[in-house]
Amino acid sequence: MKSHWIKRIVRLLVLLFGVSILCFILTALSSTDPATYLVRRGNLSPTPEVIEQVRAELGLDQPLPIRYLNWIGGVFRGDFGESIFSTNEVAADLAAYFPQTLQLVFLSLAEIIVFSILLGVLCAAKKNKLTDHIMRIVSLFGICVPPFWLGFLLLIGFAVEIPIFSVTPASGIMGLILPSITLSFPVICSTVRVFRASLLEEMHRDYVSFARANGMTVNRILWKKVFRNALPPVITLFCQYVSYLIAGSAVVEKVFSIKGVGNYLMNCIMAADANAIGACMLIIAALYLLAELFGEILNHLLCPWRKEESDAA
Amino acid sequence: MSKKLLQVEHLSIALKNPYQDLVKDISFSLEEAGAVILLGQSGSGKTMTCRAILGLLNSSAFQVNGEIFFDNRSLLQLKEKERALYYGNKIAFIPQNPMTALDPSRKIGAQMAEFLNLHQDLKKKEALSLYEQALSRAGLTDTKRILSSRPYQLSGGMLQRCLIALAIAGNAKLVVADEPTTALDAIHRDKAVEQFLHLQEQGCALLLVTHDFDVARHVGGHVLILKEGQMVEQGCAQEVLQNPIADYTKELIEAIHLGWG
Amino acid sequence: MLRKIWRNPQAVIGLGLIVLICAVAILAPLLAPHAPDEVNPLMKYQAPSADYPLGTDQLGRCELSRLLYGARASLGLALPILILLGGIGLILGMMTACIGGWFDRVVTGISQVFIAFPTLIIAVAIIGVLGNGLQNIIWAVVISMWARFMQLIRTYAKTELGRDYIVAARVSGCGMWQLIVHHLIPNILPQFLVYFSTGVASAILTVSSFSFLGLGLPSGTAEWGAMLEEAQMALYSHPELLIYPGICIFIAAAGFNLFGEALRDILQPQEDVL
């Protein structure tokens, strides 16, 4: 068991290395040369000599491996370089934009966890009854609906027609309710079905009929035994969604005009801001890998037998 | 004549959709401390009969006709809340595969104490010590370790004894065992049969489902031979297995002698 | 199999929607009353009329015509994406499952690195590298999604490879190539179709969110996501311009999702015991 987790951590480090390489390559290959961009913006005449000089200042004339080492060294010191788009330190920009996005993401995640678990149990308990069929249709709707359109529908419905919320971003939790629903609704629709399927799969197991044959009621079996054993697949999903929601917030932030990381990232793309794009990508991917490991640990604590099964396989 | 504990009368079971007969018109009765063996190939309906007696057939998928009486009470008419009065209390179940019978995530002690608490008003500690005594009566020595183990950490033979211990701790009147020897190797099989005989000596009736003629011969009692959901022959175990009347039984016994059993 | 699809109402509805969307995409020039990019500054925000059945947008372009041409843009992007994804997934998935060893480890490792990036993030970065354009958006989505397809095929191929009939075929001297073509591919094809169908749906959604963010397509293209972006400024005055393109995206995605999921239900009938 111990060796399993050591291997797992080694894998995490290897993957983190791979992720950083990919981030670096994508930003280094950027079709817009940051040096040219800087020179043009500074109203200097873009003579090749001036551009070369700026390139040297930015360290862009060195071979790729050296540039990678410079970059990753900076990352370890918390220095992602200067943003071309905002002319600030990227780290400072991220510190300014991340809190807003994280609030949105964690509120959405909380909605996702609560609703997918409750509705999943409800659907499994009322399998093939009216509630289950309605949920099936609703979740099909949620999977097919483009999230930004859902955001507009919510805005038209609850800010224009029935003005409960304001169209311009409000401060505090009120301003986050519509955006978080936009972000969480499609996700809830797919996780509810995963959890329902997982619960029903567990309901077919032998231990359920043994518990029935020992006089336990179906509801008690569902909550005390099946529930716990059916959780791991959705816990894995919840953990993956942490970073996917940050990415998804780019769209939602545009709809609701929120100044968050997604918005910042889009502006950086338009400005071909390699430093900022690389930093955002690296943070989001690293977060994904860490959340994935966290989910595995949680699943191991909940259902140790699943690990034994996957090790045997 | 001793008292009838379990009476199965004209039991028929069918799958609703698509309609398919699984068990047709089976009747038998079991006395206190007696033994009934349902013998047949797979698909003969013996496991279905067992599940019907244990109330495990979902009424939305299965159609069950006939009557099953336990202590003169109809088991097919039980309400959800009344189930606990019988199942796990007076009627104990030993499933085919002991490895999958328990919740894999929780410790055996906690699960068993929970089962006992459904029927007896005990504190958790009392339930645990009651079960621990039953474990040693079932022939297990390492009881403390077993209580704090999870099911996947124990062997099949050990787990089966844990399930038998649950029947002992619950003072079961009837033990329903569905193919209890199939998942075990030869040595454990003999030990398991001894366990069942021991339970019977202490006044517990046995309903044993098996396809193994040796086990049937060893346990004895009343035998029903089933084929495709119908009973082809019944009688005292020694009698039926020595001098079968029905052609099907003869074929089965011959097949075993030829080594195809 | 085909008969089962005809008997399943969900599959029939899904297939009907797919056929509808494809027909609209192919026949758009015949169906549309106007050219999709015919700007007419005098006819801004017209109400529906005989000439403009769904009215006009902020540049006086015919809304209906743009919606019809939008089907072309959506399918024209989603289908090549899925064909590329399917091809890459099938080849790499089969190779990793059959060759195994270090090759499997390296390719799987690389795919795990790619999976750590949400589709949108990696596609955004790739468009940043390649620049805007139809082909670039296709490659961006393919590069951001190939890892999932490959892992899926690999898992299926591995399960199939472990089955008895494959072992029997290998023992009886069946070559690897023969094995893949005659046994492996036919056996995972139905599962593959399920993912292909639902994959088209998610590609339609992904592409539309990219063009909503202003990535990929040249501005002014009649694409549903881009139309939503342009209509955003008319949220108060003309909310219907926000509603139509969304309905189109929804219908297209629903068609492929309904069909894919019905197919999955047909392939894996749920047990109803207990």
Automatic annotation (TrEMBL), chain A:
A GO cellular component entry from the record: plasma membrane
Main localization category: membrane
CDD domains linked to this entry: TM_PBP2
Ranges for domain ABC transmembrane type-1: 98-295
Signal sequence coordinates: none
Lineage top rank: taxon: Bacteria
Residue ranges crossing the lipid bilayer per the database entry: 104-125, 137-160, 172-195, 230-252, 264-291
Family indicated by similarity: Belongs to the binding-protein-dependent transport system permease family.
PANTHER family: DIPEPTIDE TRANSPORT SYSTEM PERMEASE PROTEIN DPPB-RELATED
Name of the molecule in the record: Peptide/nickel transport system permease protein/nickel transport system permease protein
Organism: Bittarella massiliensis
Species classification: Bacteria, Bacillati, Bacillota, Clostridia, Eubacteriales
Automatic annotation (TrEMBL), chain B:
Keyword annotations: ATP-binding, Cell membrane, Membrane, Nucleotide-binding, Transport
Membrane topology, from the record: Peripheral membrane protein
Predominant location: membrane
Gene Ontology molecular function: any one: ATP binding
Keyword check for Nucleotide-binding: yes
CDD domains: ABC_NikE_OppD_transporters (cd03257)
InterPro entries registered for this protein in UniProt: AAA+_ATPase, ABC_Ni/Peptide_Import, ABC_transporter-like_ATP-bd, P-loop_NTPase
Localization annotation: Cell membrane
A GO-annotated cellular component: plasma membrane
ABC transporter domain location: 6-253
A Pfam cross-reference name: ABC_tran
Entry's family note: Belongs to the ABC transporter superfamily.
Annotated protein name in UniProt: Nickel transport system ATP-binding protein
Organism, as annotated: Bittarella massiliensis
Automatic annotation (TrEMBL), chain C:
Segments traversing the membrane: 12-32, 77-103, 110-131, 137-157, 192-217, 241-260
InterPro entries referenced in this protein's UniProt entry, alphabetically: BP-dependent_transpt_permease, MetI-like, MetI-like_sf, OppC_N
Domain ABC transmembrane type-1: 71-260
Pfam families: BPD_transp_1, OppC_N
Keywords: Cell membrane, Membrane, Transmembrane, Transmembrane helix, Transport
Cellular component aspect of the GO annotation: plasma membrane
Chief localisation class: membrane
Membrane disposition: Multi-pass membrane protein
Cross-referenced CDD domains: TM_PBP2 (cd06261)
Keyword Membrane: yes
Location in or out of the cell: Cell membrane
Gene Ontology biological process terms in this record: transmembrane transport
Stated family: Belongs to the binding-protein-dependent transport system permease family.
Protein name listed in UniProt: Peptide/nickel transport system permease protein
Record organism: Bittarella massiliensis
Lineage: Bacteria, Bacillati, Bacillota, Clostridia, Eubacteriales
